[in-house]
Protein: Kinesin-like protein 6
Organism: Alosa alosa
Amino acid sequence: MVADRLLLPCPISQREREAGSRCVVSMAANTITIQDPRNPHVRRTFTFDYAYWSHSGFVRNRDGLFAAEEPGGRYADQGSVFNDLGQGILENALQGYNATLLAYGQTGSGKSYSMVGYGPNKGLVPTLCERLFQAVRANQDSCQCQVFFSMLEIYNEQVIDLLSRGGRSLGGLRVREDQLRGFYVEGLRRVPCDSATRVEQLMEQGTRTRTTAATHMNANSSRSHMLIIAQLKQIFSKENITKQSNINLVDLAGSERQRSSGLEADRLKEGTAINVSLTTLGNVISSLADAALGKKAVHIPYRDSVLTKLLQSALGGNSRTVMIATLSPSDICYEESLSTLRYAERAKRIQNKAVVNESPTERLVKELKAENAKLVLRLSRLGQEGRKTEEETKELRRLLTHNEMQIKAIQTLWEQHLQEALKDWEMQYATITQERRMMQMHPYMLNINEDPQLSGVVKLFIQEGDWDVGLSDLAHIGTSRAIPIKGLGIQERHAVFTNEDRRVSVTPVAGAKVMVNGLPITYRTELQHLDRLILGSSSTYLFIGFPCERGADDWSRYDYDYFQSELAAAEGIHIPTLCEDQSQASGEPSVESSQTDPSLLAVFYDYIKLIPMVTEANQMSQELSKGVEFKLEIKNLAMSDCRGRDLEKDIAVRVTSLENKQVWMWSKAKFINRKFLMEEVYHQQKQQQQQAESALGEGQGSGSKRLVLARDRDPFWDPLEPLHLGSAHLWLQSLAFRIPLEEQVEVLGPEGTEEAILQAQLLPCSPMGLPLGEEDILIDPTELLGKRLDFQLFLEQCCGLRWLKEAKNRGVQIGLRVYDCPQSFYTPAVWHNANPLLEHRVHFSAMRTSQDLLNYLQSSALVLELWGLQEGCADMVSSLEGLRLTPEGSFIIDKASAPDPSMLECPASVSDLRSSLRALHQDMEQLRSANAALRKENSSLREQLNRGPGPEGGRGRVERHGSLRPSCDAELARALKVFYHSMTSLRAQLQRLRRHRPSEEADLLGLRLFVDEQSRLLRDFGEQLELSVTALKQDVATIVRRKRERSGIWS
């Protein structure tokens, strides 16, 4: 049976706290409740056999152990977990059952803490081994116990023996199938152990091998599975019974889901060998859960991956199995935590039928003894019957002797194994002792790995003199003073470390990549204690100086993220600059770090996580001659929606072909998937090279051949698609007053760079598209309610296209979406011109303006998206699906308030349309004539009023009241129009001020010139703003004064 334990292993991390995360998981008894951070009313509840809380409510005691703050608190320490779970596994093993412990959860949620532990807080594995050998010692009088220990890793569907004495075999170890044993790893080393201390030593050895293998294979440890197999054999001499059980302790790869920031699907699905094992494990668990619910003819896909082959008996056969599902309580991990809970929910339905195991070795001994007894009986009968011949006697005695030797060999195998293991340990102990002695004498480099368990394992000592650092095969250099390292981007001879006069320096070899404290170096550089080094693409080391320099320094703060943060800072990406860029883009003042936008912090941590992956992808592209360059970008850093609200920020990877300047933009999820596919191609190429070199050495080959992939299978290539280059905002407020707007808007890229200048106009018009006059300007936008509104968007020209400056064989399109239109509109594509004329006009109509549309016009902008095209890329086409047209051919918006579609039918023929147009023109001419007559009458009335009140003053007063408001309203509308135009100019000036920055290479004189220029621009901006506001005040005052004067005539 599979029992599930839910563990919250640690508090919200420092990273998650800085990102403003909060806890969304709660626990009551064995029930876990998780809350959707986007919708607090949505809660999901799951119940399991055990649930443990270790998120809060604990303290560290004097011994370094974590314990509950108060007696009886809900915090569960490692001891409580072992008593509930580990003790049951141990008892099952001692009874002769197979037992399995699976740890499942996303990276960083506490799988390793639960399985192995840290420091004095020992996890399940070391505690289980201690209790196992305590039980062995307690039962040594009644039975003989033999314990064998194995440790392996599965990465990219390859099995690596972590305890192997020799080198790693090409392609890893093979998984075989036996009728009796089931699936097993051929050639996997089984090391006999007689104490828990020996097991810890072997685990340390396996961790060291795992670190080296991860470096050599360019592997990410969070994507690999680690299996520890402890085989327990109990021989009960008196009862003549042997019990044998396998204890499988499995630390599964990180279960985090790759969430795509967009809706695009990668043509190369994430079905790579790296991800097959975890995916297949989920399929197996789902199938077993369905079978447990009574579904018939369920296929269990055990054979689809190496991991599920080896765990077949643990998952659905002869084993008692426990699954630990670990969660992160942070809201930013909600999706991953919910996925883990659902995974465990399916797993707990599985039912296994475990049986006590009888050792095949014991059966063999029984069979041999039985055969010997028959041989002795035959010999005695031959002697009694007098038919004894020399040849037959010899044959029988030979068989008897052979069987006795086999029995003796089987019985003495354990002692021989122990002796061999003891010799191995003595050699390792000498090496460890030598290493500790050198740590007290020389400076050294300490490896830093993404997995904290693999950090600090490898130490490269720098003794007196010059030391060449590079690939392991350095025989041709002719020196023994070499430090061999392997990794992506490491050259045969990569750098020279010099230790003289108690100073250590590093000198890169020409073409080698060496970085110190986040900055690349090309010349000899002296190292200081706790300097950070990166050799090649991602081989990270911390320099530990001479013993006299060390003091009580704690190097644990220099973790893998620290290295990547330094690299990001060197590229200008750190929290202060991100906040500054965002505030400049939004026009809001910068906030303090304590109020930093959590989304910015989340993006920053994604950025530093992807830095090494992008570096490795670039290195693989270079070594495989793909001619592709990858670069990280922050998507939507300086972009906003139609209401000016910041868009959700994310990481994207810009992919550029160095040969023809073709560009792709990949989402984070797509790049990660492609990165794993690239690793497969890279490993296949390296294996081919090794095989070719081996064949060449034996005289059977002619050199290595490059791996050839079809284009549609090449992870470095993709079909070309339009690229979103940036957006511009054209505010619609003027339409609410029926005032035309002509503006030059700046198209800003995702990171705030200026991509182009777009000349656009918003023109209120008649249903036939004719421009409105000044008399149609509104002073109160509510006058539009219930009335028809027509306007045209005219895109005139796009200037200074950065996209075209980089390569001339490109084109652009402008896309937009208005209000409730379901489809986007696109301009025709224009090619090979950095300043193209667009001259694109679109007519929109609202048949009866609603309050919602009016609010939209007053508070929103039209977002004009700039799309980049490349040769071979299809143009973007406007779709008319779901759109409705007026009889005049304009697009209808505000559909909710539009009349019935049957009233908007087009005229039956072209002649009807022409006659309607002619009638509208006649009506317009009549309205204009009437308007001119009214103006003339108003002028005469004004002259009469200016001559003074007459006997008919009362009637004139009434008439005056009728003409006063339109005159004043028109004057006020004209004043507002002038003010809007001046504000447009001021907005452009303000944008220039935001973009105006000093050069990064400017000296003191350059900074002074920048300050003077900035002061002048600010002064001009202030003067123009003051003039505009003053002019508006004067115009309004004049209008009010005239109104009062005219009103005073009638008083």
